[in-house]
Design a protein that fits this description.
about 190 residues, elongated
């Protein structure tokens, strides 16, 4: 009787093969707004490690959907971003050692939450010396939590400059006419 439980039978012919659906909680098919997913790696517990770009296709970032690991810049080169080969190496190295279980995909935050996160980001960028220029590309490491396009982020930053002029100011570049953002310097009291 034990042999009949483990006997192999040929698969029935003529039936279509059934492919399992991807696990949505691992990020296999997740592509948030404002981000281009370039590569996906799996860690040891099957959580996805993403290599993505946002505003510029040459600025790559790495983020693990299991733990909170992110990497956006290289210490080996003078560029403050990762090229594709550096990002792929960082993602592969992290995936080979990370044992974090897959977390749920971050929900797309509402507009008020995005404004709060942008306000906190601008506040953290301030210093005592002078106004610090901040750019949309500086937001790339937190793009997975913001889940907004460049236009939506620029609109939110412009509104933040209107609502909280003590932390953020804007001006127009005299050559190209594009809007620049400056985190206001901290005032000593």
């Amino acid at each position: 009787m034990a042999l009949t439980l483990f006997s192999r039978r040929p698969a029935p012919t003529g039936l279509p093969a059934i492919e399992p659906d991807p696990w949505p909680e691992t990020g296999e098919t997740w592509s948030p707004e404002g981000v281009n997913i370039v590569q996906r790696y799996y860690n040891q517990a099957h959580a996805v490690v993403l290599v993505y770009t946002a505003r510029h296709d040459y600025r790559h970032n790495v983020a693990c959907l299991g733990c909170h690991f992110t990497k956006a810049s290289s210490k080996r080169t003078s560029a403050p971003w990762l090229d594709l080969s550096e990002a792929a190496t960082a993602a592969n190295e992290h995936a080979s050692t990370c044992r974090a279980l897959p977390r749920e995909i971050p929900a797309r935050p509402d507009d008020d939450t995005v404004r709060e996160r942008l306000s906190a980001w601008v506040t953290a960028s301030r210093n005592r010396g002078a106004d610090e220029q901040v750019g949309i590309e500086s937001l790339d490491p937190i793009r997975l939590t913001l889940q907004r396009t460049d236009d939506a982020l620029e609109t939110a930053l412009q509104q933040l400059a209107v609502d909280q002029p003590e932390i953020l100011r804007t001006d127009r570049c005299e050559y190209g006419g594009r809007v620049r953002y400056y985190a206001r310097r901290l005032i000593e009291r």
